[in-house]
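User: Teach me something about this protein's shape.
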Amino acid sequence: METELPESKGVYILIASVAQTKRLAIGRLGEFTIIPGFYAYVGSACGHGGIRARVSHHLESITQPHWHIDYLLGLATPIEVWYTISDRKLERDWAKMLQDSPKFHTPIPRFGSSDYHRTRTTHLFYSKRRPLFRWFEEKIREVFEPSIRAQQFILPASYGH
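Assistant: First, the predicted structure itself:
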């Protein structure tokens, strides 16, 4: 495990837990019931500051949400980040991998993927049980070439709320 997230470009999955059922308004997407369990959000970090900057933004922007995930993090507790350093755009491939897995369900169509017009693709996935990094590592090895190496960062309790 890394001591902190890298400033490199890459793709990530932010895992967050929700303890109680709540209604949540998410920008123009609408209002949704968020149920207890674990939510996995697939994102990319191609800008300045890379993965560290993007995840830090999500964890600090609860009062003024910008992206869909920022709304969810107003009531969810972020617990870990799975990521890989890469210049390749793997975000859609990772979302498809989670979508195809029986371990995950799609709670909100088009969440985090509104820039892909005319599709109901989502970048948010739900699991009743905490997803395991070991499973994710194996899937990455199975689906992608060996140069894509998954890494895990457990968020300290001081992150987020």
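Now, about its shape. The longest strand covers residues 10-18. Residues 7 and 53 are 7 Å apart (CA to CA). If you'd like, I can walk through any region in more detail.
User: That's plenty for now, thanks!
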